[in-house]
Structures are given as structure tokens and as C-alpha cells.
UniProtKB/TrEMBL annotation:
Domain Glutamyl/glutaminyl-tRNA synthetase class Ib anti-codon binding: 345-445
Protein name in UniProt: Glutamine--tRNA ligase
Keyword set, alphabetical order: Aminoacyl-tRNA synthetase, ATP-binding, Cytoplasm, Ligase, Nucleotide-binding, Protein biosynthesis
Gene3D superfamilies, per the entry: Glutamyl-trna Synthetase, Domain 2 (1.10.1160.10), Glutamyl-tRNA Synthetase, Domain 3 (3.90.800.10), HUPs (3.40.50.620), Ribosomal Protein L25, Chain P (2.40.240.10)
Residues of the Glutamyl/glutaminyl-tRNA synthetase class Ib catalytic domain: 28-342
Residue stretches spanning the membrane: none
One matching Pfam family: tRNA-synt_1c_C2
Length: 561
């Protein structure tokens, strides 16, 4: 029986058509081109998955190129974080490249554009240029400096490069058409003066190329065959092609294969903001602890939260490649990490909201070690020993003095199973002056130990509780996270700032009690706390002070909300 073939997405169809029309397969080349002005987030994983996925499918090289043209916002920290994130996702790039590698070539081409009458130095203020650019319904007007001579433009551009002018005093613009329906074609900027030290080129340059001029020409120099980007760049395609076609005339012998730009829909996620500027605001205002705060949608935040590359890749594959913008429910991402950790995480016992249980007929001072599987449903996870004693903790919500028949946990006069241990029956409880239960007195049946194979141990009880022995339990800090925003579209309100929708209850820090096998847990290690959810060891954790993050609950708690 042959394996069913998956239908091609529209980008794969474009590539297959190009190959069918004579493009040599060895000419296929892709790139992922982040700007190093922030950390990558879940939205970027779609673009990463598309470019690197096509590279894997067609056995074609994929470059990692940093479009680093704005030294005012770009830092080496972001470069390092981006590389770490992509490598963590499991992708390998062919070459690590930078648009700043091409500053000299871009400058040389700009000089040729001036000589061809395709670019000029404009000396208007930014306000004047904005006004004369027109609107989508009103054509623009030509700059009074548009018809400067080639010689004057060359001299001014050289003087810009030599640092003879202030920022904003002059810019270089492409000379296209101020009446074009596409406003991006109305003499766009190519260079501006900027006295900022670049993270790679230092103070070598004081003019920096604009993104639209740099991006396509970098693709061209790298001989990228398919320049894939998100839908907001679709209006830029006409300008991309105009720059490409003009530069091709200068360098077609050296760079024979001009690239083509194609666009796909971005990944938009409910209850999430994707703008780097807005994420930066959350960091700067201390709403979160940093770019890798586990509530952030950044890849580093998701990694710290306990997400896995496999879960993120499965999510991206399920979302698919499309041409139309839509919003994906964040619950799908949460489902994917649940699905992955259900197959891979060890199951252990921890109590997050403890209440004391005293087993009155268990000998005082005694204790025993019980065998427990890390996974009762799958082989290969191994076992560990769990200590048992007269005094244990259970979850406070697992006990009620009285309850209806649908409550299958511990209640007075009823019996439950302690996971991996014995059956216990609740007989009485003690309360404080406010009526809060401080202790539950129970008895146990010594013939019901798990694995004893006695008639008593085979009795049917509907409730099984997790627990920890009080004298053996280790304390840990547990950070319980909720969604960072309590609105489905926090930045979708024209009359409100997205910060108004920050969830004030997105983080609760508690002291939990864990079975002692977790004392040796390593940073990043993931576990299922039985009946509670999935947790991982946080970066802040030490041998003396364990810190766990709640990755996700066992069920979608927001579905009810």
C-alpha cells in the first residue's frame, strides 16, 4: 500500500512550476531574514518553518541573513538570541550572513543608479516629503530637487557618506513615479544619514540603506531563488522588482539569477500580541521579567515555559500555508504541547495546595519505600521509589466533609486510593477558628498496597489521589502562569491601548511540596505533575531552591470561560 501524498501548498506549487519551466533544481535557494531588533516570537516560527522546510524538502540551501540596516534599534544580543532559537527548533542554516556585509556593494549600486538618472538627493524636510507624497486617492508632487544634475547628486551623496551633513539634512531617493497608484513607488528613500554605531561595522558608515533597497538586493547577491515573506510585504513586491531589475542590468554577469518575491499569510494568535514594538513595551515597563518571560510569545519564552520544538513544529504544520490572513486560537498551540508532553514527560507527584492527612492506624515513626512507575501506560519510562509515612499532604480541593455522589475524591466515611500506596478512609477533620480545615484524620487498610495482588487491593474505588509524605517532601517554588492578556484580540481595539488588557492574574507564585525524586531534576526537564498539569524546571532553579513553571494544564481551562 503506497503512502498517501500530501497535497502541495501554493508555495510548493510555484516552485514545482518553476522547475517544470526549466529552472535547474540546483538553483533553488531560500533564506530566513530577521531584523535583529528584538527576539523571535511564535509568529516567526511559521516563516522559519516555511523557508527551512522547503530547504529540507528540496535539499536546497537556506541562508540565515540578518537584515541589519538600522543601528538605532539593532543589537548583538538579538543576533545571538535568534541563532539560539532557530538552532533549538532543530534547523540548520547553510550560511550566516548580514546585510551589513553588502554595504559597500549597495553603495556602489546606488552610485550607478544616480548616474543612470534613477536616484537623486532630496534636501526637503521629512514633513515636506510626507506632504508631497500624496495619498492613496491623491497623486504626489515632484520634489523641487528631483531634477538635480547627476554631478550634483553624486557630490552630495559622497558628502553624505563623508559625514558632512546632519541627520535629516539630505536623503537619497529612487526616481520612479510620484503618480503611481502604489505609494511605495513614489520616489522611495534609499539612504539616510544616521550617526549611530553599528553592532558589526562600528563607525565605518554614517549613511545606512533603507530596508526596501537592502532586502531585495541582498536576496539578489545571495542568488535566493524564492524570496518568501508575509502578506504585509505584498505591496512592496512592485518596488522589490523595480530595484531588482535595475540592479540586474549592472551585475547580470556576476549574479545571473534574479529572485522572485512571493507572500504568505502571517501567523496571528488569539490572546497574543506579535508586534516586537509592543513586546518591547511589556519588557521595558516591567509587565514581564524579560524577553524570555514564560508568559511571552517569544520562542525563548516558550522554551522557558516548557514548550518543545516538536510541539511548535506540529502546531505550524497544522496551521499550514495560506494566502489569507486569519487568527489561530491559542488553544491549538496549548493542545499541541499537551499532546507532545503526554507522550514524553515522566509522571510524578506534587501537591500545590496542601492539607495535612494523618493516617491514625499507621505506626508512628514508621515509613516505607513504594515502587512507582514514571508512566503507567507506556513502557520505557522506568520506575522510582516514593517514600510513604503516617503524615502526608493531599490537595485541599481533594477533600470535602460532605459531597454528592459525583465527587469521587476523599470525603468523610468514604474510601479512596492513594496513588502507588494504600486505600484510606476519612474519619474526621480538624478546623481552625475561621473554619478552615487544617488536618484530616484517616485510617488505612494495610492489605490494599498497590501491587499486593490481595482481594482487598482489588476492591473497586472510584477515586485515586496523588500525595506526598510530609517528612520526605521537598519544597519548591512553582510559578503558575495564565494567559498574559484577558482579551482575545488585545491589540484589535482602535480606541483602546493593548496594555489595558494585560491580565493582572497571569502569574501566581506558590510554595509546593514535591516527591523527593525531583530533587535532582535538571533545568529544562519536563514532568507531568499527576492530575495537575505539565511543569518544567525554570532557569532560576538551583539545587537549594527548585523552581518549576507550569507549562499547561491537563485540560483547556479557558474553554469553560
Amino acid at each position: 500500500m503506497t503512502e498517501e501524498k500530501k497535497p502541495l501548498n501554493f508555495l510548493e506549487q510555484i516552485i514545482e512550476e518553476d522547475l517544470a519551466n526549466g529552472m535547474p533544481k540546483e538553483n533553488l535557494r531560500f533564506r530566513f531574514p530577521p531584523e535583529p531588533n528584538g527576539y523571535l516570537h511564535i509568529g516567526h516560527t511559521k516563516a522559519i518553518g516555511i523557508s527551512f522546510g522547503l530547504g529540507e524538502k528540496y535539499n536546497a540551501p537556506v541562508n540565515l541573513r540578518f537584515d541589519d540596516t538600522n543601528p538605532a534599534k539593532e543589537e548583538q544580543e538579538y543576533v545571538d538570541a535568534i541563532k539560539e532559537d532557530i538552532a533549538w527548533l532543530g534547523y540548520k542554516w547553510e550560511n550566516e550572513l548580514y546585510s551589513s556585509d553588502y554595504f559597500q556593494q549597495l553603495y556602489d549600486w546606488a552610485v550607478l543608479m544616480i548616474k543612470d538618472g534613477k536616484a537623486y538627493v532630496d534636501s526637503q524636510t521629512s514633513e515636506a516629503m510626507r506632504e508631497q507624497k500624496g495619498t492613496p486617492t491623491r497623486v504626489g508632487t515632484n520634489s523641487p530637487f528631483r531634477d538635480r544634475s547627476v554631478e550634483e547628486n553624486l557630490q552630495l551623496f559622497q558628502d553624505m557618506k563623508d559625514g558632512k551633513f546632519n541627520e535629516g539634512e539630505h536623503v537619497l531617493r529612487a526616481k520612479i513615479d510620484m503618480a503611481d497608484d502604489n505609494m511605495l513607488m513614489r520616489d522611495p528613500l534609499m539612504y539616510r544619514v544616521l550617526y549611530k554605531e553599528h553592532h558589526r561595522t562600528g563607525k565605518d558608515w554614517c549613511i545606512y540603506p533603507m530596508y526596501d533597497w537592502t532586502h531585495g538586493e541582498s536576496d539578489y547577491m545571495e542568488q535566493v531563488s524564492h524570496s518568501l515573506c508575509s502578506l504585509e510585504f505584498k505591496p512592496h513586491r512592485k518596488l522589490y522588482n523595480w530595484f531588482r531589475d535595475n540592479v540586474y542590468e549592472f551585475s547580470k554577469n556576476e549574479y545571473p539569477n534574479p529572485p522572485k518575491q512571493r507572500e504568505f499569510s502571517r501567523l496571528n494568535l488569539s490572546y497574543t500580541v506579535m508586534s516586537k514594538r509592543k513586546l518591547m513595551k511589556l519588557v521595558e515597563q516591567g509587565i514581564v521579567s524579560g524577553w524570555d518571560d514564560p508568559r511571552m510569545p517569544t520562542i525563548s519564552g516558550l522554551r522557558r515555559r516548557g514548550y518543545t520544538p516538536a510541539a511548535i513544529k506540529s502546531f505550524i504544520e497544522t496551521v499550514g500555508v495560506s494566502k489569507r490572513e486569519n487568527v489561530i486560537d491559542v488553544s491549538l498551540l496549548e493542545f499541541k504541547i499537551r499532546e507532545d508532553l503526554n507522550k514524553t514527560a515522566k509522571r510524578v507527584m506534587a501537591v500545590l495546595d496542601p492539607v495535612k492527612v494523618v493516617i491514625t492506624n499507621y505506626p508512628e515513626g514508621d515509613g516505607e519505600m513504594l515502587d512507582a512507575n514514571y508512566n503507567d501506560y507506556e513502557e520505557g519510562f522506568g520506575t522510582r521509589e516514593v517514600p510513604f509515612s503516617r503524615e502526608i499532604y493531599i490537595e485541599r480541593e481533594d477533600f470535602r466533609e460532605e459531597a454528592n455522589k459525583k465527587f469521587f475524591r476523599l470525603k468523610l466515611g468514604k474510601e479512596v486510593r492513594l496513588k502507588n500506596a494504600y486505600f484510606i478512609t476519612a474519619n474526621s477533620c480538624t478546623k481552625d477558628d475561621d473554619g478552615n480545615i487544617t488536618e484530616i484524620q484517616c485510617t488505612y487498610d494495610p492489605l490494599t498496597k498497590s501491587g499486593m495482588d490481595t482481594e482487598e487491593s482489588k476492591r473497586k474505588v472510584k477515586g485515586t489521589l496523588h500525595w506526598v509524605s510530609i517528612k520526605h517532601a521537598i519544597k519548591a517554588e512553582v510559578r503558575v502562569y495564565d494567559r498574559l492578556f484577558n482579551d482575545e484580540a488585545p491589540d484589535g481595539h482602535k480606541d483602546k491601548d493593548f496594555m489595558e488588557f494585560v491580565n493582572p492574574s497571569s502569574l501566581e507564585t506558590i510554595t509546593a511540596y514535591l516527591e523527593p525524586s525531583l530533587q535532582t531534576a535538571k533545568i529544562g526537564e519536563r514532568f507531568q505533575f499527576q492530575r495537575l498539569g505539565y511543569f518544567n524546571v525554570d532557569n532560576d532553579s538551583t539545587a537549594e531552591n527548585l523552581v518549576f513553571n507550569k507549562t499547561v494544564g491537563l485540560r483547556d481551562s479557558w474553554a469553560k470561560k
